[in-house]
Design brief:
Elements lengths: L2 H7 L2 E7 L4 E4 L1 H6 L7 E4 H5 L4 H17 L3 E8 L5 E15 L5 E11 L16 H20 L3 H10 L9 E8 L2 E8 L12 E2 L5 H8 L3 E3 L2 H7 L4 H5 L5 E9 L2 E10 L7 H38 L10 E8 L10 E7 L5 E8 L4 H19 L4 H25 L6 H4 L4 E8 L5 E7 L5 E3 L5 E3 L4 E2 L12 E5 L5 E5 L1 H5 L5 H13 L13 H14 L18 E8 L18 E7 L6 H12 L6 H21 L4 E8 L6 E8 L19 H8 L2 E6 L4 E8 L11
Parallel strand pairs: 17-20
Antiparallel strand pairs: 1-2, 1-6, 2-3, 4-5, 5-6, 7-8, 7-12, 8-9, 10-11, 11-12, 13-23, 14-15, 15-16, 16-17, 17-21, 18-19, 18-22, 22-23, 24-25, 25-26, 26-28, 27-28
Helix pairs in contact: 5-10, 11-12, 15-16, 17-18, 18-19
């Protein structure tokens, strides 16, 4: 009996689909099943395609490509239509894609297989729940879209595994999942779901040569489907006892492939029988591809986080041993993009003299090059400071170092052909603030290179920006000079050093950003006691950063991840005293004095503006704004007279004492000249001679005190709360 007669007896036809020639060869039974005359025929592809339901035909290409990728049979269920568009029957096509190479070297496929009429699906199988209908395909597409979105949002390997475990596939959800990874010639479990703790032990360290489905999938890169325990036992008898105890009925092992490399395997196990139809295999294959890509992204992200953490730990120093009589706290927060490293840094350097130095700086940019320059600058500053150089010499040498470093990098970029990279070839500069501190006396010597001034929180809670002399940012001029400013950090006062990211982040400029920070520094906490509370300076540092980034939220990885426009570095130095100004205000019978001091040199008349600003900040909560304007005007006149009529510098000392609403302000300006001021009578067009007249008109009291060398001109103002408005006005 011929094979054709046997197949015809069981209603099975033969066909050959030649994709290259566009023809289909049918035997008589295959022609009958397609609704054609029952005789062997060769037809063009268009004539045969018209006999299939359009929805089913659209799935054929995907099924064939899946079979080619997995090296399996292409199996499809197809509805046969008549000329009027009615469904005649449903047939199952099973064919083998055979690769054909054309004369011009192109690769095409030829399908050789059978067509058989099938009855309605039987209950108890997944085929009964997954008919090939448009509604099922729409639900499958919706599932794949949701799965892709969820896996794309996973940021770690643990999150990817949780998402994979929560996927509910349409019609055949697995109840056991496992992800296998490859390390050398070993297979291991990355994660699993639907199993008890310890169940992964036999599979935790398995050689790739083991007769196990996941190992074979990794070796071959092809999926393995095991619809029944008999299939599993027949194909993998050696490892069947390991799988038998879990009570599963069907298994699918799929390769996790990224960029042509098999990085592992994914197992989906079922407690109900699954036939693994082409549609089911297509869904599993798509999920495996998305899972592989998500795991790779998570691995890259975790590697970047480890690199970032390592860079931060290596570049950000520890604050060193405790300093008697002082407390220090610091914070560094990188930007949110890239490797999350940037050009901001801080450092604490023990000096040979027994003092210590605090350094804070900001290299231009937020990229890897800025981070590299930051590390080199930090080392250079530490080296120059450890040699015992003064603050101005440390910054001068560092500026020369940075200028030479950028020049050599620019030359190397030109020689290596990378000169067209404008970002790499552009010179970089850095701002820096260097403070040398004597912990015994509280004396601070400050040198500044284009950096924001330090802020001082005084014992009564008032915060002032402390003007200091400064020079150009580092690296702009190799031989720049950096003058030094000296002042004393009194007991109970706190100094804040920060980069511009703490001030300007969030759309603020220097003025509004500083007002935001001053409100945090001056805020009185709820607690009080006999001394500074433990950890008060650390809490203040956290409050300053949170004032910029906003409060933490439940969906972020940490409290400082909400708004990262720029790097942030902040250092707090508190000199302990009876009343500590670093976050805890104590109860005292009298408010401590508020004091500031400033020197204006003959060669620095521009610092008169700084003196005016200093007075306004000292009196920022003074009740009468007109008195503040009067004080600023008199200070400007007094300092200007010293620079105009003497050959020396002006020393300004301002002090406010008393309780709010009834304070006394005393301001003195001292100089080295013995010539006393005298009252003049200037005409209307005179440009000078009104200083004493202003003092008589605006000050509550004033005077001149001769000293051993020079004199001191002073005035006092008494705070007067503004009267309530007259209700009759």
């Amino acid at each position: 009996m011929r094979t054709e007669d046997v197949l015809a007896a069981i209603a099975t036809g033969l066909w050959r689909w030649d994709n290259a020639s566009g023809t289909v060869t049918l035997d008589s039974e295959a022609a009958r099943l397609l609704g054609l005359p029952a005789e062997a025929v060769v037809l063009p592809e268009v004539a045969v395609r018209s006999r299939f339901h359009p929805v089913d035909w659209n799935e054929v290409n995907g099924i064939v490509n899946l079979a080619v990728a997995e090296g399996t049979l292409a199996e499809a269920r197809l509805r046969i239509m008549d000329e009027d568009g009615r469904v005649l029957r449903t047939v199952r096509s099973r064919s083998k894609p055979v690769e054909n190479r054309t004369a011009d070297g192109q690769v095409d496929y030829e399908l050789i297989g059978t067509i058989q009429e099938i009855a309605e699906p039987q209950p108890g199988t997944t085929a009964a729940h997954t008919p090939i209908t448009g509604d099922w395909r729409r639900s499958r597409e919706a599932f794949l879209l949701d799965a892709g979105r969820a896996l794309a949002e996973a940021r770690s390997t643990a999150e990817v595994l949780r998402v994979a475990a929560s996927l509910s596939m349409p019609g055949f959800s697995p109840d056991g999942l496992a992800v296998f990874g490859v390390s050398g010639d070993r297979l291991s479990i990355i994660g699993h779901h639907g199993h008890d703790a310890g169940d992964e032990t036999p599979f935790a360290d398995m050689r790739l040569e083991t007769d196990y489905p996941a190992a074979e999938v990794v070796r071959t890169g092809r999926a393995i489907y095991l619809p029944s325990p008999e299939d599993y036992k027949r194909r993998f008898p050696a490892t069947w006892p390991l799988a038998q105890r879990f009570g599963r009925i069907s298994w699918a092992f799929l390769p996790l492939i990224v960029a042509g490399r098999t990085m592992g395997a994914w197992m989906a196990a079922f407690k109900h029988p699954v036939s693994f139809s082409p549609d089911e295999r297509s869904v599993l294959t798509t999920v495996a591809r998305m899972l592989a890509q998500a795991l790779q992204r998570a691995g890259v992200a975790e590697s970047e986080r480890q690199l970032t953490t390592g860079l931060q730990r290596s570049m950000m120093p520890q604050l060193g041993p405790e300093i008697p009589g002082m407390q220090i706290a610091a914070r560094y927060v990188p930007t949110g993009g890239g490797l999350q490293v940037g050009g901001d840094w801080y450092d604490m350097i023990p000096l040979p003299s027994g003092r210590f130095a605090l350094v804070i700086g900001d290299v231009q940019g937020h990229d890897v090059r800025a981070a590299g320059l930051m590390g080199q600058l930090r080392i250079a500053v530490r080296a120059y400071a450890s040699e015992g150089h003064r603050p101005d010499a440390v910054l001068s040498r560092t500026s020369r170092f940075l200028a030479g470093l950028c020049s050599s990098q620019e030359s190397d970029a030109y020689e290596d052909g990378a000169y067209e990279d404008s970002d790499f070839q552009s010179p970089r500069f850095a701002t820096c603030l260097y403070v040398e501190c004597d912990p015994r006396t509280g004396m601070l010597e400050v040198a500044r290179a284009g950096h924001p001034d330090p802020a001082i929180r005084m014992t009564d809670g008032t915060v002032l920006m402390r003007p200091t002399a400064g020079g150009l940012p580092l690296g702009i001029v190799p031989d720049a000079d950096y003058p030094t400013t000296s002042f004393t950090l009194e007991p109970g006062e706190t100094m804040m050093l920060c980069t511009d990211g703490l001030i300007e982040t969030g759309g603020h400029d220097l003025d509004t950003g500083w007002a935001r920070l001053r409100a945090i520094l001056e805020a009185d906490p709820e607690e009080s006691g006999a001394g500074p509370a433990p950890g008060h300076l650390e809490r203040l540092a956290d409050l300053l950063v949170q004032a910029v980034h906003g409060p933490s939220s439940h969906h972020t990885t940490g409290p400082l991840a909400d708004r990262r426009e720029d790097d942030i570095a902040v250092v707090l130095l508190c000199r302990e005293g009876e009343s500590c100004g670093c976050g805890t205000s104590l109860l005292h019978p009298a408010r401590p004095a508020r004091r500031t001091m400033l020197t204006v040199a003959q060669a620095e008349p521009e610092r008169i503006a700084g003196a005016r600003r200093q007075i306004r900040e000292l009196l920022h909560d003074w009740a009468d704004e007109e008195q503040v304007d009067s004080a600023v005007l008199m200070v400007s006149e007094m300092v200007t007279n010293v620079l105009t009529h003497t050959d020396g510098d002006a020393l300004l000392v301002a002090e406010a004492v008393g309780e709010l609403g009834g304070r006394r302000l005393r301001i003195e300006v001292a100089d080295a000249s013995d010539e006393l001021p005298h009252k003049r009578h200037p005409g209307e067009m005179a440009s000078s001679g009104r200083g004493v007249l202003l003092m008589e008109m605006l000050a509550d009291t004033w005077g001149v005190d001769p000293q051993g060398e020079g004199k001191s001109i002073w005035f006092e103002l008494y705070e007067r709360s503004k009267p309530d408005p007259d209700p009759l006005d």
